[in-house]
Design brief:
With about 400 residues, the protein is of the alpha/beta class. It is about 40% helix and about 15% strand. The chain contains 15 helices and 17 strands. α2 runs antiparallel to α11 and α4 runs parallel beside α5. It starts with a helix and ends with a helix. Bound molecules: pyridoxal-5'-phosphate (PLP). Pyridoxal-5'-phosphate binds next to α4.
Length: about 400
Amino acid sequence: MYDVQKIRADFPILAREVNGKPLVYLDNGASAQKPQAVIDATTRGYAEEYANVHRGLHYLSNLATEKYEAVRGTVKTFLNAAHEDEIIFNSGTTEGINMVSYGWGIPNLKAGDEIILSVMEHHANIIPWHFLRERMGVVLKWVDTDVNGDLDPQVVIDAITDKTKLIAVTHMSNVLGTVVDVKTICTAAHERGVRVMVDGSQATVHMPVDVQDIGADFYAITGHKLYGPSSSGAIYVKRERMAEMQPFIGGGDMIRTVGKDVITYNDPPHKFEAGTPGIVQMIGLGVALDYMMDLGMDNIAAHELALRDYAQEKLSGLNWLNIQGNSATKGAIFSFTLDGAAHAHDISTVVDQRGIAVRAGHHCAQPLMEHMGVTATCRASFGLYNTTEEVDKLVSALELCHELFG
Ligand code: PLP
């Protein structure tokens, strides 16, 4: 049974007060809180088990390397990848997508080639492709969401031409919560020789993900949203695609030999991991993923979908609240504006006075904001430890906002 109170007790920060009120943390879309197991693993990593990885032959270096490398297997299991060497470690999704843009995009694309992007992408899945537009003359083609905030896979498929080389699409919107049918997109793309980069930053937090079933070429995840340390993450790259990629950064650890005129690379995935990595962060990420898998991704998804339904019912009862996006596939992420003069920042300041953390702004999704005709929204994003009582607290804080600004 999913015992949310027991789970909450695993997260020490949830016991604190903010502005004299018990913390209600609804900013999980930005970053999630950490369970004690992750905090303990990082403390132990520095206090008892720290050394650089892959380099030394001494006891601590071997121990740190063993623990760090074991996380590759954990990520493989978490994503159901076929092979451990399809998992490249990094600091998070931003680095992962930049690695694909530089490492796969530059060697495999040319001027005039097209990349299809959804208007719902986070800037992390936009800017690296703009770099290729600016520097190589690659063409960016945008596909829109419909009035409900859904991305119809057919709209994406219809945008494919014989110049299309890549589709860059999110698995779940960080603003609207919409879950995209990336499997249908990947299947159709592959029939046409097109590769697919899926941004899994949000989806992996809220539901089970199987990269083999989806068929993605590239699938990026970010550790700090997965209840792990910041500056931890990974990208899944299908073996065939990895063979087409060049290293994005050069330095220690990614080479086998270095001469004055020649270098030979380490085997993948190490070929794509230069320099001293976030050793303890990655070990912490492994613990966080184990924590989620122990709870069960299906159980987490069921808990959050029940929260979504509860929040949907309560929030849609506020007729002065404009909820953005109404997808049937939506997860427990709500973006909204308020009738009247209240700016998203004003709303978040008022609810913060009640100990409630939400995010206000453009959420690093300016093309989506433009498409929706707003400059900013307030976002309440739920996680595995949130409760219906917290939804009620949010609703009553919003009622206060309406009284103040409505
Ligand atoms: N993609 C999505 C959908 C996100 O929500 C985020 C973070 O907010 C990112 C990418 C970027 O992740 P990071 O900043 O951890 O690299």
